[in-house]
Specification:
Oligomer: homodimer
Number of strands of chain A: 10
Largest sheet of chain A: 8 strands, parallel, barrel
CATH topology of chain A: TIM Barrel
Shape of chain A: globular
């Protein structure tokens, strides 16, 4: 049996659904619409959201920060099962990274225990901290490169002296991108996280890496420009993530039932896909 | 009531116990001594270890990678309670870091839900990713700086052009250290992770930061030199972590009972403290 790698699966699903959108699941219990009640509202809200966006996205991204803050652990497994049963790929957004034997355990957690198709990792600790994730050859590994937040400039944008074989200087995020492209992508399962809030840097990263796949957060609540991003993606198997703007679109807080909430979310997802496609 | 900050508490406990040792809890189920059996062996092993080291250390460090890989979540809370009931401080080694609203959730997880006294964070995403942790003013926040693993050289050791106010160039780890010292330590609750495998870099970091508190892994299984580290610590409220070499010291695999295992661990901890103190 030939196992299809994550990025090949993603490419096919993106073509099938004609969608580059990724729906991010960040469940803040304090912000869940009032129509979700009772002790199971975390799961019910997440399930409703996943069903609502499923026709419009190839992939969902679950941010572990939110489930951990609420002590919701089995619930993440439920979301993964729900999403996969609807034919979606699942990214676990964990941003982990540690010395080799610890990173191996984190990889075991996200891929074996949670059953993710892909995850996000931090590059700060270098090759041996990323390698245990990459060893899962059929899984996708998105390395943080140029992130969408204001603090990205503190270190990622500093000009660094590049490794000898490359020469010259470049911003740290570009050295991370080049390292990922040249040293970490031997199995073809490595991607990069580059924020929509920095479209020029995004373009540079794509060119420097021969169009590695990007996970692009920062559109929606963070204010990134869809057109500036999409026009640069070229032939890369990239995707644009939206979390808050899809989970809590205008009008959703006042939804009178989960069904009405689902309709509002589906409409927001459909609109987001159309907006992205209008820029392709 | 005056709440004593983490580093002040740590300093007092280090003096009381005459110990700079931190005992790291990395429970690999496959390596637990055979005398621990049954479905509760993860917890029993951890509990036994904490009781055995308690007389010799002011603080324990729990690495979440290992508990997450086994799906052991309530068990971490049990370890925290056990350690605190024995008068120990608890570091949750999580190495998290994300955009602000997500980092706030991770901070909530480690400090509010797990009840940690301190945690480790990754600096790659910059100030706004670290700030939500620092806002817990009575908690300690150790920022990854120059880590103990081989891959630390990939990015941390690259020479970077420093921010304008500092001028010149310096290795990335030093810029991270300087940023932590100048911008992130306003509440006096910030420390740094610097590996024992790089004692010269450790000395540079201490001098550049006016002796900020360090968490120093890399002694023991990773081969760092105790004397080279301890001789450089000066007046900083630093500590040396040992995980594998304390949890699984020579002879522990063949222990015939948890009591015998505890004796072997206690002897190893006592010896480690004496070795560190002989270099002070």
């Amino acid at each position: 049996m030939v196992i299809m790698g994550y990025f090949e699966q993603l490419k096919r699903k993106q073509v099938e659904k004609c969608s580059l959108l990724c729906a991010g699941i960040d469940i803040d219990l304090e912000k869940i619409p009032a129509c979700f009640t009772g002790s199971s509202r975390f799961v019910n809200f997440g399930d409703t959201f996943i069903r609502a966006v499923a026709p419009y996205v190839p992939v969902v991204k679950i941010n572990l920060a939110f489930s951990e803050a609420e002590g919701m652990f089995p619930e993440v497994n439920e979301f993964v099962h729900k999403a996969r049963s609807l034919g979606l790929l699942v990214i676990i957004d964990a941003k982990r990274g540690d010395i080799g034997n610890s990173s191996a355990k984190y990889a075991q957690y996200v891929f074996d225990r949670l059953g993710a198709d892909a995850t996000t990792v931090s590059p700060y600790m270098g090759s041996d901290s990323v390698e245990p994730f990459l060893e899962y050859a059929d899984k996708g590994v998105y390395v943080l490169c140029r992130t969408s937040n204001g603090g990205a400039k503190d270190f990622q944008s500093l000009e660094v002296v590049r490794p000898a074989m490359l020469g010259g200087t470049a911003p740290l995020y570009q050295v991370v991108a080049e390292t990922a492209a040249r040293q970490w992508n031997g199995r073809g399962n490595c991607g990069l996280v580059v924020g929509a809030t920095a479209p020029e840097e995004l373009g540079q990263v794509l060119k420097a890496t021969d169009y590695m796949p990007l996970l692009v957060p920062g559109v929606g609540a963070q204010g990134g420009d869809v057109k500036a991003v999409v026009s640069r993606l070229g032939r890369s198997t990239s995707m644009i993530n939206q979390s808050r703007s899809l989970m809590l679109p205008p009008g959703s807080a006042g939804a009178e039932s989960p069904e009405e909430y689902a309709e509002i979310v589906a409409a927001a997802a459909k609109k987001a896909v159309e907006e992205i496609n209008s820029c392709r």
